[in-house]
Amino acid sequence: MKNFINLLKKDIKEIITLQLIVPLLVVMVFYSFMGNIMQTEIKKYAEPQKILVVDYDKSNTSKQFIDNLKASTIPEIYKENSLNPIQYAESKDINVIVEIPKGFGADLNNFKQPSLKIYSVMKSISIASLSAKARLESVVKIINETTSNMYIKSFTNVDPNIIKNPILVKEFTVIKGAISPIAPEAVQNLLTSQITLIPIILAFVIIFASQMIANLIASEKENKTLETLMTAPIKRPLIILSKMLASSIMALVISFFYLIGMSNYLRGVSMGEIGNAQTSKILESIGLSFTPIQYFYLGVLLFLTILASLALSSILATFAEDTKTAQMYLTPLMILVMLPYFLTFFTNVDNLSLPIKIFVYAIPFSYPFIASQKLLFGNTSIFLIGVVYLLIFSLVSISIATWIISSDRIFTVRVKRKSFNLFKR
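Above: the chain's sequence. Below: its structure in token form.
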């Protein structure tokens, strides 16, 4: 046991390098920094923005229109001076100019359609730079709605809303047999904001663990230290077990740091902890929040998936002569990890054709991604199927990897590669 612990310490020390720590810290700080910036900017643009109003009409109707703009903007009345309205707006750092033409009020009172000119001063192509205009358009839309209601009331006593929308639609969503008075689009948006991190964490852990064990085995072969390790007083199956354990520990640690950075970023985009807390309460009220037992199910599936990826990576790494070729041999595995990640993100696996569905369920890395969605809706069969399949796959893969490590084939196995010369005649 002492020899195994020493071997595990050696493998962990080989993984922890400066080339690993520096990018890890940079990524974590970067995502946290970007999250704080996004949160600050979103809060800034959520506040009322200044707009410049050029009132050529100067009627009671135009004054009432300007008063209505104060609901969500800060209108500043333009007064004639040496600067034209556009120059004045640029000097005051105002991005939106509203021009009320002469005769605006008279046209409205005579049931005509006056034009309202809106000028946007573009200084960048960012989405935030157009927030003031978008807010102004929402105010104008409300004013249009109010004015049209006024027109309708002048001709009839019927409620204008009934005339515009004679049919009232009430949306409900059925979740686990219970009816909730909420639109399915709203449920989907809430769920997306809450479970975005889960597939990202799963992909990170699996990819990192696979890369680490492949690099460990390939570096041992490249540096010719594997031969010495085989002569050490330790059982050969424990050698592969040590590398698998070291890789999984470090993969979890690295994913934890990535999780901190990514969660800070997503928190900034989703308007901070208050928005997340409100979303969690809504999801709990409709029965779509993860329970402790469901988190346990996901943890078991993630553990077995990591085990399967480590065993499969160990087999692939035995064909590599150095760390460079090890990464090349891991490419098929990375594709198999990312395929279910994107499929579960953009589509429902159950709606796929039968051959594609069989292919997806045959990939061992699919089950944590699929289960993260199905468990929310009370489908625990995916957990049982995943556990059985992953156990069988992992045991077979570990047996093959142990058989290769225990024999001398790890030193002799090679993949024949044909050289290709582009300029050969």
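Confidence is low (pLDDT under 50) at residues 419-423.
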